[in-house]
């Protein structure tokens, strides 16, 4: 992409942060800086680039979406990242949330169950020059035991928590997910304590469903 083309997205991105994110109460300066920096237009379908910085989720194929910018910022802020963390993401999608996280922690490990989306995310993250990310095409409900334990786990599809995720969290680590079914979800943050779990509830929201298994092709549009 030319310098002129890149600069043409700068103003819409800054406006997105000011009007859609900061104005709604997102106050973590590191999160705001990441949202101002990550080029969302590189992660959407070419036909939808003109809508990249609008206040909406957008389709990315196979029944999946790139989340609304505010929801990406909201979930990221709830993780309270300081910069040293190792974060597991369940549901890479097109890689946008992954890119935002990678600006705020030491390393992101991200799992996508749909093979073509996994490959697309790899290409997107390479184009956006995010190097501290490891990607895997697998069933996200199984987590990624090889690199556990994690400081935080974020889930970008709606459903119910896998016991394996909590097992793969460090003591003091956070699991954040949109919990619920049939499109009616609520953000839930569970902090793993030495003895038990602390549970907190936040925004009502709607996410695509969390599914099991691996899909090798984009069978749904």
Automatic annotation (TrEMBL):
Broadest EC class assigned to this enzyme: transferase
Entries under Pfam families matching the protein: PCMT
Top-level taxon: Bacteria
Single GO term (MF): protein-L-isoaspartate (D-aspartate) O-methyltransferase activity
Main location per the UniProt record: cytoplasm
Active site, per annotation: 67
One GO CC annotation: cytoplasm
UniProt catalytic activity: [protein]-L-isoaspartate + S-adenosyl-L-methionine = [protein]-L-isoaspartate alpha-methyl ester + S-adenosyl-L-homocysteine
Keywords: Cytoplasm, Methyltransferase, S-adenosyl-L-methionine, Transferase
Task of the protein: Catalyzes the methyl esterification of L-isoaspartyl residues in peptides and proteins that result from spontaneous decomposition of normal L-aspartyl and L-asparaginyl residues. It plays a role in the repair and/or degradation of damaged proteins.
Name this polypeptide is given: Protein-L-isoaspartate O-methyltransferase
